[in-house]
Amino acid sequence: MRIVTLIVLWCCLALPAFGEPLQTIPEAKLRGVVQDFLLKKSQGINAEVKVKKAVVPAELKLPAGTVTYEVIAPERWEGWGNTSLAVVIRVDDQVKRNLTVPVEVEALTDMVIANRTLERGEVVQSSDVSVAKRDLAKVGGRFCRDVSEVVGLQVKSAIGGNSPMRRDYLERVPLIKSGQMVTIVAENAVVRITASGRAKTSGAAGDLIAVLNLSSQKEIAARVVDSSTVQVDF
């Protein structure tokens, strides 16, 4: 009995009462409502936005009255790629339709791309990269906009040719490599002490790495100064 009641209630919501004056909402109107929402959603995105798909009904029959629309996007949707919107349609403030509208939004923006395949361990040169427009939906938001962000960095995970350069695939070039002999320096305004050590981890300038003090045989944390020197607090 409960199931029958629910079906009857849904039908009453979905269809106008018999003999009730009707109005027709054309596809163009529904599409315009969705597109306006999507363009407002994408305001502030530094990209060229285009609505590639919005699947709406050909037309809707609604009771006569003042029609209002409420478009709701998934909470974590950023405004590009594929998703489904909820479109709530009211007539004189009463809900008459609740539509699900699949959409696809293209958002093109400038990204640094690899001109060729870059293998792990390579240092990025200016000739290896260029700037081109790519769809934000294809990179998950992780990309570089300016070549200065990537030139001089080392590739830590291979990057295919014509692919956007992701910062998490790059790292600063290590000045000191694991296993290398280094000079450990501890100094202040009065005294300077040095000792021999062996790097236990690799690091770029300014990085904190693990170093084995060969005199004490103790492992310490030291900051990379140059290609042969690390410094500890004194």
UniProtKB/TrEMBL annotation:
Keyword set includes Signal: yes
Cleaved signal peptide residues: 1-19
Segments forming domain SAF: 109-171
One family name in Pfam for this protein: ChapFlgA
Compartments in which it is found: Periplasm
The UniProt record lists the keyword Chaperone: no
Top-level taxon of origin: Bacteria
Gene Ontology CC terms, in alphabetical order: periplasmic space
Any one GO biological process: bacterial-type flagellum assembly
Keywords: Bacterial flagellum biogenesis, Cell projection, Cilium, Flagellum, Periplasm, Signal
Function: Involved in the assembly process of the P-ring formation. It may associate with FlgF on the rod constituting a structure essential for the P-ring assembly or may act as a modulator protein for the P-ring assembly.
PANTHER family, sorted: FLAGELLA BASAL BODY P-RING FORMATION PROTEIN FLGA
Sequence similarity: Belongs to the FlgA family.
Protein name (database record): Flagella basal body P-ring formation protein FlgA
Gene: flgA
